[in-house]
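Researcher: Going back to the complex we discussed earlier. I've cleaned up the inputs and rechecked each line, so this should be the final set. Can you rerun the prediction on the complete assembly and write out the structure?
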Amino acid sequence: AATHKIAVLPGDGIGPEITAVALKALTAAGKAEGEEFVYTEAPIGGAAIDATGDPYPKSTEEVCKAADAVLLASIGGYKWDSLPNAQRPEKGLLRLRASLNAFANLRPAVVLPQLADASTLKREVVEGVDILIVRELVGGIYFGEPRGFKEENGERVGYNTMVYRESEVERIARVAFEAAMKRGKRLCSVEKSNVLEVSQLWKDVVIRVSKDYPEVELSHMYIDNAAMQLIRNPKFFDVVVTGNIFGDILSDEASMLTGSLGMLPSASISEPGKPGIYEPVHGSAPDIAGQDKANPLAMVLSAAMMCRYGLNLPKVADRLESAVTAALDSGFRTGDIMQPGCKQVGCQEMGEVVLSKL
Amino acid sequence: AATHKIAVLPGDGIGPEITAVALKALTAAGKAEGEEFVYTEAPIGGAAIDATGDPYPKSTEEVCKAADAVLLASIGGYKWDSLPNAQRPEKGLLRLRASLNAFANLRPAVVLPQLADASTLKREVVEGVDILIVRELVGGIYFGEPRGFKEENGERVGYNTMVYRESEVERIARVAFEAAMKRGKRLCSVEKSNVLEVSQLWKDVVIRVSKDYPEVELSHMYIDNAAMQLIRNPKFFDVVVTGNIFGDILSDEASMLTGSLGMLPSASISEPGKPGIYEPVHGSAPDIAGQDKANPLAMVLSAAMMCRYGLNLPKVADRLESAVTAALDSGFRTGDIMQPGCKQVGCQEMGEVVLSKL
Ligand SMILES: CC(C)[C@H](C(=O)O)[C@@H](O)C(=O)O
Ligand SMILES: CC(C)[C@H](C(=O)O)[C@@H](O)C(=O)O
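Model: Rerun complete. Updated structure for the full complex:
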């Protein structure tokens, strides 16, 4: 039993509401296992812009770096949409990831039996889907240099660089192979090596690393085909490893298989000993912010991922996940996942249901 | 009535089989309208590698440039998969596109009522979907320089450049706005301008061009969100305009909504007066090549698109499209789109059915 320092970044929109629910659940689940959490709150995104003019202020960075793990809700909103890019909420998120070197973004897309009908895909296609997307998060075209604008032959040109070095691919590949070993032992590496040199390097390194994991069945897929197969036959996939922008696209697409963005957590992990970032896949939903309508379950499950991957507290994670399952089994639903025959509740009431199941 | 010079590139795998069917149908449909087609065949892709060592030989380039339009089947196969990239079939395709400056790739994703149940998505979600994806085809990260490999701090680095200049975005935007004017007057521009400078330029130019099309309702979407919305609510989309790699991904994803890759044609058009390229969206399917199992309908519909967009022969196009619809209405299906209660036929027999409906 110990004390765990959590940096809490509620962010914007529905962030504060779902954070409040998740922290109560986390505290209770921890107590049951004799674990204590100490929360230090700090602003990020739009909230930080309003407070300090900077979407990721130095003070927030310090809180995050001093923590054992960072629990982040969601950022952004219409209010800040017209700011220049460098000052927008998203930039705060990218700087947070980079400053913690949170290079491995794990995004599970699990179709819960209770929600299999919520998907726009046919039940028989998505039932039992359990995919883990491992996305490289601090490299690739998101951070590649050179980037920017120039003038050429009298017109403006915009450009970015998609770049990967061997060591970057190797470390994300290892995370993916390790994850595959703990799951179905199948790994699909997604790139566009029939066109891009950066993808050829990616593929070469993944093949090299695979020699250390002879038990894992490795396949390679072009990103266009992967976008197709995710819909055609999602059960083909166990673990997927891919670069930053391909992972951005594929993980959002995969999230739709589940029909319930409000249920999906994610983890962005760094080197051993450094804090990772745990956050829901969904956004800040400014249209329903402050109305007690948000689904807090992805945030509760993000806290569970934090316990499992970041704090090595699998029992606390189990408790949180079981409580979420029990809440669904009892028929409680927020509006986004409402189904006939279920009982619709708001964000706070869903929180109380989860607490009662803990 | 006139004579039209068609460069015919059967390519690899099932290419020759489906080409044979499409040419017969095209000749017959033309005859009925007093139009004559003259076909000049040339090798591309694997077939060209085997014949000349080059996936896009000079002789093929000359045939294409001298033609009124290029009808392409499909390229690639296992046989050439281990060649270095510069010598692979795909490279022939990329060079063909560049040499003709075929900058605007039009990919319709239409859910035919006869095939609405073939989709892995629920019927009510996809019924009536009619999306036109307009993909920039000769720029972006596919062709951007600098690109390649380098050594840095003792390790290999792979890199590519995603780049767009104003004039490139402007011309593809105009094609998309013109297409929207002829359809539902809604255009969605897809990019990642919250992260990439190249996408900010893209968005700026699209907004500028939109001033010339006040009737078209323009929206903007990030690529990750678009990949999600295509599954969540595909009916939102009318025309989509996007860059080369985003279009590669989105159009393949969209094709899956229809559940019938074997039905989807595409057009890649160049400046006025220059030949465009017309080809099915599906690949060369080497696993079923030469077995008379392929679905020739996407190829017939590609010939129809050629007549409509490339040769200004809308009546011939109408005839071909009606014949395909009639063949489906009569219950004939190739294996890929087979449904209970229908009659399964091979590639040649499907061709004869189409001919009989012309
Ligand atoms: C908000 C945006 C910068 C971010 C990304 O593209 O990484 C988001 O889409 C995500 O996937 O977390
Ligand atoms: C074969 C490949 C180079 C090509 C592309 O990526 O453009 C294909 O996927 C397509 O979409 O036509």
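Model: Worth noting: Chain B has two domains: 1-103+270-358, 109-260.
Researcher: Good, that matches what I expected from the previous run.
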